[in-house]
Write a structure and sequence with these properties.
Number of strands: 11
Strand content: 5-15%
CATH architecture of the largest domain: 3-Layer(aba) Sandwich
CATH class of the largest domain: Alpha Beta
CATH topology of the largest domain: Rossmann fold
Structural class: alpha/beta
Shape: globular
Strand order of the largest sheet: 3-2-1-4-5-7-6-8-11
Order of helices and strands: HHHHHHHHHEHEHEEHEHEEEEEHEHHH
Radius of gyration: 28 Å
Number of domains: 3
Distance between the termini: 62 Å
């Protein structure tokens, strides 16, 4: 099987057992089992790694004498120090997935899983309060939980296999995405489509420094950012490094994020607890080099009435009835002196003039906070049909800070509404890798970043345009890309249009005539059956 076929097979099998349990409730036990399988495999594999290190002359724990080494091995593999130093979670024997799998048909397997999860939490402070411990309350038919465990058992981790850690990570992410499709509207609480995440990551290009997401959901921004960093280390000839910070409003979603980070071998600071970024900010002193976020669109109950004089509102007090400009200003306030942010917002944020939003946007543009705007196509999200856009903010647009070109007093507009050509379902599309690369390159050429392919930037009608302050002022500081990029170049002329119009009119007349004939025929047939009109 290919990776995609493997993930789909696992998902189809796991989902077939769901029965009457909603996708919203089912995702927690399924992802919890995936996580338990991962930490169990890691733990069992670590014992073999320790034994090999004891026999390796270059190791810091090498023992020359074979008999002493064999005697010592049993003690070493019971010493949790050798697990913690390699960031491997300690898993008690009673909680190991392999041991639980042997009891998968037992009537009390749900209670055993709850106890196992509790034991793992108690042995690992980082996981305290994170794992799913309600298997005994799950309304699955008898035997289904054991079947689900056997499906998850097909996942295997071996640290000696290149990229085997990614198997768990990719399955975890794939399942998150499939649950999002199944949940529909509610999915926005925990999942941003991979295509949208990748657009932010490819454009912002996080490589070295601090990364922050104040509405982090299940952690997709973090995972893709680190993948970007890893993929470009060889290209740039140096090692990247990203320190992860985030915050999440929902308790259960925060748990999904912590598990997602752990499955990918990542560590992050999500604050002391879940809570509102506006009223219970967990990272007040943070100044991040990169911010990537997909905050909830147009929320009205964000606590704005209590925050009128908040120091984060550098460009004006945001309306209490809509958090869009509160998000923008919060993220701006958390940027370092060279920081940049990429934010997903509803299209209305680009043009709204109500409740001081137009004034805030004008001040943001005039003070050089806005760097780039990208219009997205519809149908990228599984959970909403609200059209969305990407805002890119920058603390410093001068030459040499984040690129070789001085872009003070300028904003780049990209209209990507026609660029996502890959259809993944009847109601959802996504960008291809090539489309993502081409759109991101427009930005990198314009800014002159180290990720640019070296080609010069140029305005392309219908696609991109670099506007200065005078142009922006003429448009009332509305930031909708379609206003600036113009129309695509076409070869049509007036005569060709006239010919087309004549042809279309003729076809319409023919179809209307055929429609009248069919209508008459139906009336005749029904009349023969005794129906009157």
């Amino acid at each position: 099987m290919t990776n995609e076929e493997f993930k789909k097979t696992l998902w189809d099998a796991a989902n077939s057992l769901r029965g009457s349990v909603s996708a919203a409730a089912y995702k927690y036990p399924v992802l919890g089992l995936v996580f338990l399988k991962f930490v169990s495999d890691m733990f069992e594999a670590q014992a073999e790694i320790i034994k090999k290190r004891l026999a390796d002359p270059d190791s810091d724990i090498y023992i020359d004498d074979e008999d002493i080494r064999n005697e010592s091995a049993e003690d070493f593999i019971k010493d949790r120090t050798f697990y913690e130093t390699d960031n491997v979670f300690w898993v008690p024997s009673e909680a190991l997935f392999s041991n639980l799998l042997e009891k998968a048909t037992a009537a009390d397997i749900a209670q055993k899983l709850d106890k196992a999860m509790l034991l793992v939490e108690q042995e690992n402070q980082k996981l305290s309060g994170v794992l799913y411990r309600e298997f005994s309350r799950l309304a699955l038919e008898p035997g289904k939980l054991g079947e689900l465990m056997n499906i998850v058992a097909k996942l295997k981790f071996n640290p000696e296999d290149h990229g085997s850690r990614d198997v768990f990570g990719e399955v975890y992410e794939y399942f998150l995405g499939m649950f999002a499709i199944n949940e529909g509207q509610r999915a926005g609480e925990f999942y941003t489509p991979k295509s949208v995440v990748n657009m932010l990551v490819e454009t912002l290009a996080p490589f070295k420094g601090t990364i922050y997401d104040p509405a982090c959901g299940s952690g997709g921004m973090f995972v893709q950012s680190v993948k970007f960093k890893d993929a470009h280390q060889k290209q740039l000839g140096r090692k990247g490094d990203l320190a992860i910070y985030g915050q999440e409003l929902m308790s259960e979603t925060r748990k999904l994020c912590l598990m997602n980070l752990a499955v990918h071998g990542l560590e992050g600071d999500l604050g002391e607890s879940y809570g509102s970024t506006f009223t219970n900010d967990q990272h007040k002193s943070l100044r991040a080099d990169y911010i990537l976020a997909n905050p909830p669109f147009n929320i009205s109950n964000w606590g704005g009435d209590k925050l009128a004089d908040d120091p984060r509102w550098a460009f004006g007090t945001p309306p209490a009835g809509n958090a869009n400009y509160a998000w923008l200003q919060h993220m701006w306030s958390r940027l370092s002196s060279r920081g940049r942010a990429g934010i997903v917002l509803a299209n209305g944020s680009m043009s709204s003039t109500s409740s001081n939003e137009g004034n805030i946007r004008r001040d943001m543009v005039k003070k050089d906070a806005v760097e780039c705007m990208i219009a997205l196509p519809g149908q990228l999200f599984s959970n909403t049909q609200i059209p969305a856009c990407l805002w890119f903010l920058s603390k410093d647009k001068t030459k040499g800070v984040n690129g070789q070109f001085d872009r003070k007093g300028q904003v780049l507009f990209i209209d990507a509404r026609k660029k996502a050509t890959s259809r993944i379902s009847r109601t959802q599309i996504e960008f291809t890798d090539q489309e993502l690369f081409e759109i991101a390159q427009i930005y990198h050429r314009w800014r002159g970043t180290e990720f640019s392919d070296g080609k010069p930037y140029e305005d392309i009608p219908g696609l991109c345009f670099s506007a200065d302050l005078s142009v922006l002022e003429n448009h009332g500081f509305v930031l909708t890309p379609g206003r600036y990029v113009g129309a695509e170049a076409v070869e049509d002329d007036d005569e060709a249009f006239a010919e087309k119009m004549t042809s279309l009119t003729q076809k319409l007349a023919e179809q209307m005539a055929k429609g009248a004939e069919l209508d008459q025929l139906i009336r005749q047939k029904l009349g023969g059956l005794g129906y009157e009109f």
